């Protein structure tokens, strides 16, 4: 028994040494002896706190009324301010532009970023009120604002994006992308915090939607599940920096499920409709509908009566066998 325990200890010691050796060999994925980074769990809790005052009464246990709402908002804003200061301070510490700066200077910058986000909440709420209305108007299955706010992944994604985008535009490092990836894991919708999105935006269903960093989306745009607003491949990271790599979607455009639109020079003109599964790498003028040709379908019966089943399908569609 003693020998077995000693053998286990030796094997464990060997495992530890192997892991430490990998740290020495692959140091680019270590963060040892560096500044403390924001924890994903605390960023997730912070996001929930912000959303609780963006949508008051929806995501907190205690009921709110005219008497209690002032105290709730005051206490929650104070908590957000302190938490956000701490998270932004740690985010700034890993940013090259803040390297070597005195701690009090970084702390003051973090305080300003935190206060700035809280001051932006009324304007963020104004945009989200239009987004919720767009969802209610655009989905016949929607019954109420409450249903949309509490259960529609597209609204959750755009709400978090408007918070992350505000921080991104003020050059807060790391934190906006962490928020975006938390929302991605919650909703299945991947919106880079750099994407510029107009008012009354609605993602229906949402799973698999990808919106790239330099995408520009106008007002009253509607996307369905599986849509990609992406970039064409670049040979190096630096080649794609500081240029628009993702498409522009102008006002009043609808993009149906599975469509892929790529490239920074690609502009989808106002009022256009992009059909499902379309692949686009060039611009289309305003008011254009882009669809795939009707695919050719073939039907096979289990008994091998191919001609009979094809004839039935054609006749059901109002066509005659042997015509094209």
Index terms:
324 residues, 5-stranded parallel beta sheet, 9% strand, 3 domains, UDP N-Acetylglucosamine Acyltransferase, domain 1, 8 helices, alpha/beta, disordered C terminus, serine acetyltransferase, domain 1, 14 strands
Could you characterize the architecture of this molecule?
The protein has a five-stranded parallel beta sheet with strand order 1-4-7-10-13. The protein is built from eight helices and 14 strands. Helices cover 46% and strands 9% of the residues. With 324 residues, it is α/β, with parallel strands linked by helices. The C terminus is likely disordered. The chain folds into three domains: 152 residues, Orthogonal Bundle (serine acetyltransferase, domain 1), CATH 1.10.3130; 86 residues, UDP N-Acetylglucosamine Acyltransferase, domain 1; 28 residues, no CATH class.
Summarize the structure.
The chain has 324 residues and is of the alpha/beta class. 46% of the residues lie in helices and 9% in strands.
Layout of helices and strands:
Blueprint: H1 2-25, H2 40-54, H3 69-93, H4 103-138, H5 145-151, H6 153-169, H7 175-187, E1 190-191, E2 196-197, E3 202-203, E4 210-211, E5 216-217, E6 222-223, E7 228-230, E8 248-249, E9 254-255, E10 260-262, E11 267-268, E12 273-274, E13 279-280, E14 289-290, H8 306-316
Parallel strand pairs: 1-4, 2-5, 3-6, 4-7, 5-8, 6-9, 7-10, 8-11, 9-12, 10-13, 12-14
Helix pairs in contact: 2-3, 2-7, 3-4, 4-6, 6-7
